TrEMBL record:
<dbReference type="Pfam" id="PF02958">
    <property type="entry name" value="EcKL"/>
</dbReference>
<dbReference type="InterPro" id="IPR011009">
    <property type="entry name" value="Kinase-like_dom_sf"/>
</dbReference>
<dbReference type="InterPro" id="IPR015897">
    <property type="entry name" value="CHK_kinase-like"/>
</dbReference>
<dbReference type="InterPro" id="IPR004119">
    <property type="entry name" value="EcKL"/>
</dbReference>
<protein>
    <recommendedName>
        <fullName>CHK kinase-like domain-containing protein</fullName>
    </recommendedName>
</protein>
<feature type="domain" description="CHK kinase-like">
    <location>
        <begin position="156"/>
        <end position="333"/>
    </location>
</feature>
Amino acid sequence: TRTTDPRHISYPCLFSRKKERMSAAGLSPLTSQKGITETWLGEILTHKFRKEALVTAFSAKAPLSRDGFLSEICYVEVIYSTQAGKDQRVSLVVKFLPEGPEVREFVKEANLGQREVEFYNYSNSKEFKTFCKKSGLPHPVPKIYWSGLTDDALTIVLHNLNMDGYRMVNPAEGNNIEQIMSVLRSIAVIHSAGVANMRRHGSHHTLDIPFDSSVLLELLHKGLDIQDNMYANTHWAEILALVRTRAVDLVNIAKKHPLFSTIIHSDLWTGNVMFSADDHTAAIIDWQFAQIGNPICDIITLLFMSAHPTVYTYHLDQVLSCYWERLTSAMKMNDLPMNVTYQQLRDNVERLWMYGYMFLTASLPDLLPNNKITEERFRAVVTFLHDRRAFTAFLNS
């Protein structure tokens, strides 16, 4: 997640109520990598394995490049032993609050730490693990060792997927269809598990945190400024001017077209995905923006933010069917009714194409300068939307 991309601002309505439970293991979150000790790591491993673990050595290092990460992270290699006495190794990724005061304040005010800790606590639950195992996808997110949050500190300890051959693949020209379908299979299981979780625990969900869209609106206007330069002296300049007058409606378009509610990622692109060596499996990371919402938002965000244009232009039915088959299969394997049809899902995608355009436009100020997307790929999105008459439908709504 990018430091310049605070798209979902929320109000701190649940922070203090959850603080005690988040640190219930008796562990304390750290303010930085400097706080990591053998004793602290031993407590983490003891908590995870539910048996005493003695750390005999460890090394911690920060990544060579931050590459726009919102959080501070480090990689930790640990040698430990249990009662059996044999040395064992484990590789971890540890996340902290950002160091910069402005970003740190944003994370706190937006409850991003709370969102991520709540999600990982949920993903570490027996309920979630059992659901995913029954669905045939045991680990759609990294294994969590521990997460903790206080007013001044955040720490999330995860399994280092790099040690399993996983890597990040987000080329500027876009991901191929196999990679996109891998992500859709993973997010479909998470979406279906979210439906089960909400049905079990009711409407007052810990991730149902409201957000203020004013920052998103500000980023949208900055992205439109970039497009003004792209399309200067063309007929698209007039369309962009009309879109700008409807910016508030564009930011809130998902509320106008609901399908069903579940736990969604809200920032789903391949910069937040780790792929297996064969690209067949995708683990979704960085859940700072997790919330309750329409799952179609995740699908369209992934397509426009990450997919090569040929994926959604020529293979849309294939990728949507891939998502639908995994979603309905996971629901069936866990004895849950599916209350919408594929055609309803397909229709909702058509109604929410402009949500994807909005999200991508708000991301342009970060993506283009950092070569996360080419101008050609952005133009392909605009052409696709024009061909589907999405701009016309939105402006006439």
